[in-house]
Each structure stands twice: as structure tokens, then as C-alpha cells.
Amino acid sequence: MTVRVLVADDQDLVRAGLRMILDAQDGITVIGEAADGAQAVALARRLRPDVCLMDIRMPVLDGLAATRALAGEGVADPIPVVVITTFDLDEYVYEALQSGARGFLLKDAGPAMLADAVHAAARGDALIAPNVTVRLIEAFAKSAPARPAPPSSPLTEREEDVLAAAARGLGNAEIADRLHISLSTVKTHLTSLMTKLGARNRVELAIWAHERGARSSSPRQRP
Prior knowledge:
The protein is globular and about 50 Å long. The protein is α/β, with parallel strands linked by helices. Mean pLDDT is 84; it is low at 214-223. Strands 2-1-3-4-5-6 form a six-stranded parallel beta sheet, with helices on both faces. The chain is 49% helix and 13% strand.
């Protein structure tokens, strides 16, 4: 199924670039563009895209307020939002996630991660840029339960390796390279981990690993 995306950014060149990148990906098509947050909310409610790609700093209504309007608590029929920004500021990350965003990326994340985030949001999952994951762990781990709930079923050794790598902030491609497994296998293990641990995204996986005291050393490399 093709994922229909609405792109919201106040810069014409950025919108054009994002459209070009997304339209070049398998299974993704851009169905609309918005130059400010208010326009993004109106278009999203009319077009009902599968995912909204939302910049933070926009006129009229900023991306965080637009995210709350489309995906925040109490919204009857929320639309998945992935926030993408130039600004690597913790307060933006926290507020974006609290506003209901299903992903948070920097604009230099690259086409592959951008596509991964869009597909993850469409599936109901979440993807957060690995370079902000470690900071989020430090911020959220203190409020996490001291003894996290056990997994619904035991983790396999390979899942333990993938969990340890994700907890260190490695991206999917880096995990695949480190463990000598395919990218699709990494994604399969992450999906399984989220199911077993009741986690919604990589940050919650990392927090679980931190609280449990998962292996902090580099994952073993097995053939």
C-alpha cells in the first residue's frame, strides 16, 4: 500500500526537496504541501493523508501546535505526524513527542531514515533520530519504573544484541553493519522487541534496556 504524505514547511526549496526525496521512495507519494501550520491542519483534515511531515518553525501556527491539533491527546481521529527540523534542541524533541508526534528527525537525516520514519508512522510505530535517543534516555530514564515489566516472552540472543545497539543510539543501517545482518532483519528484530516489551519507539526500548541493565558493551559479532 502506498503511504500518502502531506509535507508542511515554510521554505519553498525545502518542501520541493522533501517532495522529491519522498516521491522517489518505493511506497510513498506526496499528496499535498503546506507553507504554515494552519494550512497544514486544514489540508490534513481535508485530504486525510496517512502521514504528515511537519516542520517546527512555521508562521501562523507552528509545527508543534499543528501536531497537537492533528495528533494530540483527545483528537478523535488522529493523523500520524513526523516532526522534522533543523534545530536539534531537547525542548523541541520533548514537546513534539508530548504533542503526539510519531517521529522526530533532523533535516540532515537522509532519504533512507526519512522513508523509514514515514513508513513507521503509517504502521502506527515511531522512529526517533538515533542522535537524540541517548539524550532522551537520560531525560526519561529517571521517571521510568525502577524495575521494568518483564517481556511478554523471553528475548532471543540476537534480539538482545539489537536492543543493546539501539540503546546506544545506533541507526538501523549501523546495527545491520555491526551485527552482519540484513536491514530487513534488523527491522524485524526491532518490531519483535517493541511487541515483547510493550514499547512504542526506540527511546522506550532504550529506557527499558537502561533500567534492566542490559549489556552496555558492544554487541557480539556473530557470523
